[in-house]
Write a structure and sequence with these properties.
Blueprint: H1 4-28, E1 29-30, E2 38-42, E3 46-50, E4 55-61, E5 64-70, E6 77-81, E7 86-90, E8 96-101, E9 104-108, E10 113-115, E11 118-120, E12 127-130, E13 135-138, E14 143-144, E15 164-170, E16 173-175, E17 188-194, H2 209-269
Length: 270
């Protein structure tokens, strides 16, 4: 039977071994010469603590864990920061590329779609796969508003002159459908109707403002041309009249000279 003294001696031996192991571990911690980003390191376990702007990432190598300090956590890990140190912790969501928390995935691996922090190869019922964003989006059916009022009864663009015509009404889309959603119903409806039987006058074209401006400019131009023509004609007539008067005067003068010469000759002969 073990006595109390033997129990005390055994406990004392265990305490000494623990102190020796802790002392060995303290001597194994290196303060200087650590890799980049490490605040303290060990030759056996790598980085033990990191600088404030770094995250401590632990990975297994055989039977031991090796620590490194990194600015950003690798794929499959998410960053978390405590009071004393920042750490990179492994995501526990299958097929996850980027996660925010241990069980919440933000972006899934190619070929998978995220929904509420999980990754799915095929989205749940009532949802469809959005390949551009890699998310599961809810399926939305088309929704339309109430019918608008009926339009006038017409045929060939006229509301008169025929017995039967057609009237139409339309409605607008309020919510457009998404992929795999129900399509929109008909947005236009036609109905046979009676047209006003009165005589339909032929439509008259409204005068074109540009044409009116062009016509007025042309009229003014023609008026100025006629005015200039009349002036030139008046000047030509006046020149012709003066020339005729001059010729008549010359002719009468010549006749008078001939008469006076004849009188002179007749007096000399007699």
């Amino acid at each position: 039977m073990i006595t109390s003294w033997e129990v005390l001696i055994l406990m004392f031996g265990v305490l000494l071994s623990i102190l020796a192991m802790s002392a060995e571990g303290k001597h194994n911690v290196i303060i200087k010469g650590c890799p980049q980003g490490c605040l303290s390191c060990s030759s056996y376990n790598g980085c033990v603590t990191c600088k404030p702007q770094y995250y401590l990432l632990l990975y297994r190598s055989g039977m031991k864990h090796i620590g490194i300090c990194t600015h950003a956590c690798p794929v499959g890990y998410y960053p978390t920061r405590g009071h004393d140190i920042g750490r990179c912790l492994k995501c526990h969501v299958d097929n996850c590329d980027i996660c925010y928390e241990r069980m919440f995935c933000a972006k899934c691996n190619p070929g998978f779609y995220s929904h509420r922090g999980k990754c799915y190869e095929k989205c749940p019922d009532g949802m469809y796969e959005e390949k551009q964003t890699g998310d599961c989006k809810p399926t939305t059916d088309c929704e339309v508003a109430e019918w608008n009022d009926w339009g006038p009864c017409m045929r060939e663009g006229k509301t008169c002159g025929r017995k039967w015509g057609e009237k139409i009404r339309t409605r607008d889309v309020t919510v457009f459908p998404t992929k795999q959603g129900l399509p929109c119903p008909g947005l236009l409806e036609a109905q046979k109707c009676k047209v006003n039987p009165r005589f339909c006058p032929e439509p008259t074209e409204a005068p074109d403002k540009d044409t009116d401006k062009g016509d007025s400019k042309k009229k003014k131009k023609d008026k100025r041309r006629r005015k200039r023509k009349r002036k030139r004609k008046g000047k030509s007539n006046s020149r012709t009249k003066v020339s005729n008067d001059r010729d008549n005067k010359r002719t009468s003068t010549r006749r008078n000279k001939d008469k006076s010469r004849d009188r002179t000759m007749s007096s000399l002969i007699s």
